[in-house]
Amino acid sequence: MRKFNLKENAVRRMKNPEQSEKTVLQEAVQADMPVPGFGIVSRTDVGRVRKSNQDALIIGSGLAGVADGMGGHNGGEIASGATRDGLLREIRDHKPDGILLREIVQKINLEIWERQERDASLTGMGTTLTLLWPSETEMLIAQVGDSRAYLLRDGKMRQITDDHSLVGDMVRRGVLTEEQAACHPMRNYITRAVGTDDTLEVDLFRENRKRGDRWLICSDGLYGQMSRSVLEELAALENPEEAADRLMQTALDNGGKDNITLILLTDETGAGPETEQTAAPTEGNGEAEA
After folding, report:
1. Which residues have CB under 8 Å from 162's CB, separation 6+?
2. FRET pair for 188, CA 20 to 30 Å: which of 47, 98, 166, 251?
3. What is the average pLDDT value for the chain, to the nearest integer?
């Protein structure tokens, strides 16, 4: 996948003959509980360059997320898969809770760290994690690494998560613009990942739900292959299936240099516009909880 500078359920093929034979579409229907109150469309593809897909889709137990693995040989696939499986195991039967979510991610982080400590062939493996866990009234978002969660509301798209990457830090400090960061030679260096150390800081965000919201969760293999304006235009297409197909095909057409994974969630039961609220500053409001 990428450098680190610190320490299928129902499956069908793309009908478009121009699209990659390697593309796998993962349907929203899961053997486990999906995400109540949301329509879900997901896609994952190995891309045009990589030999294996180290991304993991996380859908079930009320969760939706993406884990983008890294590490030599099959280390990235092991890390992302272990993160997915651990979350679905630990979250089951629990109600959304920020403190609990942070503790569970930290527990899984330690498990992956200890596994590579025991097996030298897995040294350096880790994974990003961008995870959504909705309650009846709000969306809880956990973030580690540089996969992303975007919120499309009333025709406008907003990035909710912060990238834990070298260039992401430079953008936040005003050293680089987003356009400069997109082509910076160090853009693939991330500064935080699940499994790369025995301790882990997890960002938590909260957003109040609104009926009609569309959430996009994706690995950098998607957003890194197109401009922000194209990403927004395609993600906002009325038909979620078409939106997902077009997003995937655009990333592939633009090089498909990394594994590509995305989930589109449409909020079908959130509060109407008349009750729309912004989460209180102490609970996130676009900022990570301490």
Report:
1. 143, 168, 172, 203, 288
2. 98
3. 84
